[in-house]
What we know:
By secondary structure, the chain is an alpha+beta fold. The chain has helices at residues 8-58, 81-86, 190-193, 223-226, 231-238, and strands at residues 127-130, 169-173, 178-179, 208-213, 218-222.
Amino acid sequence: MRRHGFTLIELLVVVAIIALLIAILLPSLKKARDTAQMVACQSNLRQMQIANVFYAQAARNWYVMIRDPAQANKMRWYQNRLYMSALNMQTADDPDGIDNQAVDFGNLNCPAMNDRRQTFNGRGITYGMNREQAALPSSYNPGISIGDSNYDALNALYQTSIKRPAQVLSIMDGNDWHLARSYANYVIRWDVYGPTGGQSTAYRHDEGANLVYFDGHTAYFTKYEVYAYEAEVRNRLWLPYK
């Protein structure tokens, strides 16, 4: 009995149908993946802020210092043993959390950052703390002011000094371990340097970023919302003492 195979036309029709199905499904699959990444990212941020609260409970209500000018090496928050232990982690290269310049957060890295080696200075840190919380005038109390008013004054805040904990960001998607309000300006930072810009907000989620507020709840903002045109709107998100 003679066996009948597919004709060329039939094969082309099958290929065309498969291609059409792929074209239909791919956007849906990408959207589902992006949604899963956003959920995981916000979960990471929530855990980091919970650890910050645990740290404050053990440190007489002081949040972890973003950078401690009192330490000889000006220890950063990700080198702080107490904070990292609240995340059930140790710093990557130094179990004492003092000398290393890089840290591997493992599952606490932003899942949307495919290659953490592309982050600023290759440190692999995909979240940054709001440094505006530490740039306090010397007259402000109970905030600490050590060193100059810029880089060396990265310090901590007292929990009750946060005027609007449900409206001020604590930690956000970033290219660096600390984030500056002015460097959230996507026109001169993200749109130019992408994931390699220091102190910059990382708009890696569909041109937006996830963040966690001081009260522990999370949100997603587009880059136009993080760096709003109106200075007053920006300040409400970034400045804890106003």
